[in-house]
Amino acid sequence: MTPTAQPPDDPHHARRWLILGVLGLAQLMVVLDATIVNIALPTAQQDLAFSDGDRQWIVTAYALAFGSLLLLGGRIADVFGRKRVFLIGLIGFAAASALGGLAGSFEVLVVARALQGVFGALLSPAALSLLTTTFTRPDERGKAFGVFGAIAGAGGAIGLLLGGVLTEYLSWRWCLYVNVGFVVLAAAGAALFLHHDTITTRPKLDWPGILTASAGLFALVYGFSNAETYAWSDPMSWALLAAGVVLLTLFGWLQTRVAHPLLPLRVVLDRNRGGSYLALFVSGAGMFGVFLFLTYYAQATLHYSPVKTGLAFLPMVGALMISATLSSSMLIPRIGPKPLVATGMAVSAAGMAWLTWLDLDSTYAAHVMPPLLVLGVGFGLIMATAMSVGTLGIQPADAGVASATVNTSQQIGGSIGTALLNTLAASAAADYLATRQPTPDVIAQSMLQSYHTAFWWSAAFFAVGAVVCGLLIPAGVPEQDPDAAPALVH
How far is it, in rounded angstroms, from Cα 14 to Cα 23? Predict the structure, then answer.
């Protein structure tokens, strides 16, 4: 089996859209798992009798393992074969999910969530790199990445809806069991349709890079999670964040000194790809302003059930999917990524600012849905474009690690955004209550003040992102080397 471009009459070429379905299903499972468990947490906490202080670990255990191991997972896919790593990731994710669903104690649930993160770190970059090597024709690549980007952007909202339905009508445990169903379908499709890539030369793994990158990303994610739970002034927060910066700086230096770097600098120094990674980082940070705080607003202020809260996000999902598909399939080939990413950031900033008009008497149709539609358009422009361009023109040997960098950018952005926005929102609520009597109306208004603060800061993230990405990403349509990341055939 050699890396060559697939001719149209190759029987494997006919499978490419089926392969997209398999990869999209796997990506949906990984993305929605970041939010589906959030809806189930209160019920799981009551069932397993763990404290409010321990509750964060159900979320943090997944984020720590996933975020810190993504780069390693991407390089493992490059070295040992993408189909093999994809299948291992799928099966491991299903086993970890089943363990979590069966958990009889808090400790077992935390271990299961950490294992989900480990196998997700294998699965997610392998899926994106398989997409990169399967779709090489520019017109088809745009459509494929439009679909994939839409799934990545909408997965969080779909997770909220699915988590609400499963928790309300079945059990919180089904928020974990449901992954087994996803895996059965995806693994069957992968076994039937995916190509085995024969590794002719297997470079040595960059162990110094692996250790410094994984430890540095772990310290960053843990540091921001600690700051979110305790305080920015907590010594543990500062020590972890400082250690993360030092380790990642050392990692960057090491990548210029080793023969087979974990993350070759050629991957990130390309302005199109570098700008795409930055765009995903910013969107990861800013999107939590919608998923997290609008969920609080819907349930605490509008008194929506978990299912109704999830349904409220569907118009945004629809707008995102249309925007993502159009931007990748029609707009990138004509105008390039620069105006799309910058416009997406500006539109998202406007949508976030619009959400600050929400008050205690707002209605869904008049006040919530319109800014959600605007945000869906903005997110679609950013996500699909950045995911496509972030892996464009990459050499086949680097497809896995480039795909991992896409996922890492979004994951680290989300971790940082969650911690920052939670801290800023909590401070705003405390400041509002400091000079007022805590009556029910005042408490409700303080919560609203905290949501407004989060939305304003999210708008600021996107506004800065529009300027920086607009300056960093070069104008024009990127040229793609037809031999850069060809599909793999027998």
Answer: 16
